TrEMBL record:
Residues 340-564 form the ABC transporter domain. GO terms for cellular component: plasma membrane. CDD domains: ABC_6TM_TmrB_like. It is found in: Cell membrane. It comes from Motilimonas pumila. This is ATP-binding cassette domain-containing protein. Keywords: ATP-binding, Membrane, Nucleotide-binding, Transmembrane, Transmembrane helix. PROSITE patterns: ABC_TM1F, ABC_TRANSPORTER_1, ABC_TRANSPORTER_2.
Amino acid sequence: MAFFLEVGWFIRQHKWRYLTIVLAIITASICSLLPPLMIAKLVDKVALQQNLGWAELWPTLAQLLLLAFATYGLRYLWRLCLFSSALELERQLLLKLYGHCCNMPAAFFRRHGTGKLLNHLNADINLVSQGVGNGVIFMVDAFVMSTLVVIVLATQLNALLTVCVLLPLPIMAWALKRYGKQMHDVSHQSQQALGNYYQNIEHTLSGMQVLKSHGYTQSQQAKVTASLETLTHANIAQSKIEAKYEPTTSLVAAASFLLTLAVGSVLVRQGHMSLGELLAFNLYLGYLIWPMNAFGFLFNTLALASVSLQRVNHVLNEKWPVAANDDGDVSMPEADLLEIHLPQGFKHENRDTNALHPLLFTLSKGQFQGIVGPIGSGKSSLLQLLLGQLKTEQQPCYLHANAKVAYVPQELALFSGSLKDNLTLAKQDATMAEIRQACQLACIDQDIQLLPMGYNTLLTESGHGLSGGQKQRLSIARAILSDAEVLLLDDCFSALDALTCRQLMVNLKCWLNDERAIVLTSSRLGLMRHCDSILELSERNHNLPHDALMAQGTWYSLHVGDKEA
Ligand SMILES: Nc1ncnc2c1ncn2[C@@H]1O[C@H](COP(=O)(O)OP(=O)(O)OP(=O)(O)O)[C@@H](O)[C@H]1O
């Protein structure tokens, strides 16, 4: 039942709808409980008065018909209300989880994996929605119906016989509680197994070409098969528990029927009950079978829903420090767009050594900043810290209020859709002239014009259909088009020839125009001479213009000669 407390916020949000549902269930239950009493009276009348005419029969028959229609209408109403509420909760949770994911840094996605997040967004949220849909049906309907049946049995028919009916119920309650606990543990495992399975499938499908080229399809298939086996075992364990619910409730219902027949026939023989009352009693017992089964389904549904809700909440509760430009509290000199101060350097989660040495780095408008250093010296890590994608417990990175940042990572992200759709991702209302201008600056306009469908050329997932260099320039054009004030370029010139690189550097310098700033990391050291200042990541973290850095005799000055662009 703790599940209902956890989704209490949603039930309160839709309190009128839930009140309507409860009232409709109570009224429908009363309507469906009246017929047996009416039938009992009719049977006793027939027993007393052998030749009963149509005139005496039809009012009862008309009332029975009316009650049947009323029950139908009310049941339809509350089911409709309940299922639409469940779908609404599903929609709200999906939006909440999706919105949360959108605000989380790269480390979050590495930790959870796309497949597992898809599992939360799909299976887990669906089970939670079933909890507030079917769960409420089972709980309210079963509770209302069983309470009303017991009241009618005890007050209208026979109290002693009612006690006999209730005798086996504690056994059922104990068994259902036990199954619910077992189901809670097992469904945790099965949801986890489903997440792992999704994860493996996602890896396999997205990397299929590489797997095939290395001949790894067999071993990857074995991995997928193993995760599927684990999932199947977990699901079978879950089914074994599910299979116990119905037989248990049926057994308890059968015990109640047996007790009623045995005690009831004695009571009729002793004249404490009429035959019509015993018949009505048995008809009402039939009404108790559904609530008993429903209690079984309730425990099952709630066990699954509460595990899934825990899993979703676990992801939702992962907090990320608010980006400094969101809280408006930015104590920055006007000229600086961005500042990061790492007095103790920076270490990745689960790593013993620093990825960055102690550093103070500021960026002003109009600045073209290069970042260099040996492989693994922390260039990408620094850009991710500037973006707020990595976490530091020291003084956080300060972005000037409202400074808009565009980032072109090493692993480019292009989506299925037209080239134009990909370009306008960050500026949906961009005109064709603006799009072309951004592409000209990124030296890709000519390539696009040569394509048969130009800007309408369709790309498949990950930009298949374009060369590596085209993908890089397209990503740069998209970043330029976004009108960002800070452009972070992470080694995204690696697939370009020297001539294009030089042209691109000249274009980017023009684009800066004292209004924006660029931070560029590149293994093409020859390009760095175009930058205003070059930060060389090392123990001393020199940040100097090209000539001054050359004069220092540092790593850069030793390597720049070999890497002319
Ligand atoms: N997500 C991560 N978790 C743990 N360690 C990481 C993570 N990302 C990078 N590192 C480590 O941090 C160090 C710096 O990596 P980073 O990618 O920032 O270097 P880089 O200078 O950009 O390298 P390259 O020139 O190859 O692009 C490396 O030792 C790397 O193994």
